[in-house]
Amino acid sequence: MWEQIRANKRNSILLLVLMAAVLGLLGWIIGLSVSPDPMAGFVGLVVALIIWMILAMVSFAGGDAIFLAASKATPVTKSVHPQLFNVVEEMAIAAQLPMPKIYIINDPAPNAFATGRSPQTASLAVTAGLLGRLNRDELQGVIGHEMSHILHRDILFVTIAGVMLGAITLISEIFLRSMFYSSMGRRYSSRNKGGGQAQALMMIIAIIAAVLAPIMATLLYFSLSRSREYLADAGSARLTRYPEGLAGALEKISQNTTPLSVGNKVTAPMYIVNPLQQKGMKLSDLTSTHPPISERIKILRGMAGASFTDYSNAFKTATKHTTPIPSSALKDESVQIRSADWQKSVDFKKQTRDIGDIMQKTAGFSFVNCPCGLKMKIPPNYKAAQVKCPRCSQISSI
């Protein structure tokens, strides 16, 4: 794994340099579009690089907090969802990592992500929809996948790259919107004919660059992200010794038709499954930010054991491509697949009720079970120490 960690660090530096080049080129072209003076391009380049340096420092110092806030993730205690804490603790021990901070996103769509600068500062966020729909083995598969991202140091790469991608997208959109609303075009048209034509041509080039820059930055990022997803799947299978758990979770997530309300283009690559989908469509293999889900499931279900070598063999059989597993991990080890835990089947109505309960607990509601059988849900703004049951009038402590 150390080989993969070193490779991830090299790729992260390469990605940042390439994104800085895209950002600088965009700033240079926008500068020249504002003024025909050659120095304007240099000024635009310097301004873009200053923005890049500021955002790089901000993303390194607090990128994880930005992503968690943008995803409306709420830190929770073990009392909100004990099973989630137990599973995370299990996976942290298996991966020999410190316990990450745990967050819940109050959203019925199933998904999850990990973020942070290092294993010591890592955070793990899951949606209420994920907790309500998955059984314990499936939840363990998802947590194992996210814990593998932390183990492989992918979280720093995703955090910094996501903020950089967001910066390029933001600058491009600001320029395009300012072009749309401002009167720059009229000012240029009033200049001498030759200079005006040259400036108009530069403006067209700047508009094309503003459209293409976010696409180029996105392609740069995604070119390095897919292998990380495969490797995290392999890591999950090894940590849990039960590939079917993650396969079942991916299958359930792919069948979801409810879009994640807090998902956007910048945070989408962080999630275990791309949260962006067209309304009325299921998540499908058309996703551009992650490997095809059906392919990931096929690989996991084709594993003869739970080792990296077993994943590599299943990958080559399913895709006919070169394995994404580094050679240092392909050692001769035997990891047997364990048997499934007994799981109580849950119908759709109970799943919906459980998701609602998790969302209310995350929002600060207290649950009081009255001896008459009624479950009372006390809102966080209720300050009294006792509550009266509306069914049997018995007084209960909160």
Quickly describe the structure:
The protein is of the alpha+beta class and 398 residues long.
Account of the 3D structure:
This protein has 398 residues and is α+β, with helices and mostly antiparallel strands. Helix content is 58%, strand content 8%. The protein contains 12 helices and 8 strands. The protein has helices at 2-34, 38-70, 82-95, 128-133, 136-151, 154-181, 184-189, 193-240, 243-254, 293-301, 308-319, 348-362; strands spanning 73-75, 101-105, 112-115, 123-127, 366-369, 375-378, 386-388, 395-397. The strands form 3 sheets. It has a 4-stranded mixed sheet, with helices on both faces. Strands 5-6 form a two-stranded antiparallel sheet. β7 and β8 (395-397) form a beta hairpin. α1 (2-34) crosses α2 (38-70), α1 runs parallel beside α6 (154-181) and α9 runs antiparallel to α10 (293-301). The two termini are 49 Å apart.
List the helices and strands and how they pair.
Blueprint: H1 2-34, H2 38-70, E1 73-75, H3 82-95, E2 101-105, E3 112-115, E4 123-127, H4 128-133, H5 136-151, H6 154-181, H7 184-189, H8 193-240, H9 243-254, H10 293-301, H11 308-319, H12 348-362, E5 366-369, E6 375-378, E7 386-388, E8 395-397
Parallel strand pairs: 2-4
Antiparallel strand pairs: 1-2, 3-4, 5-6, 7-8
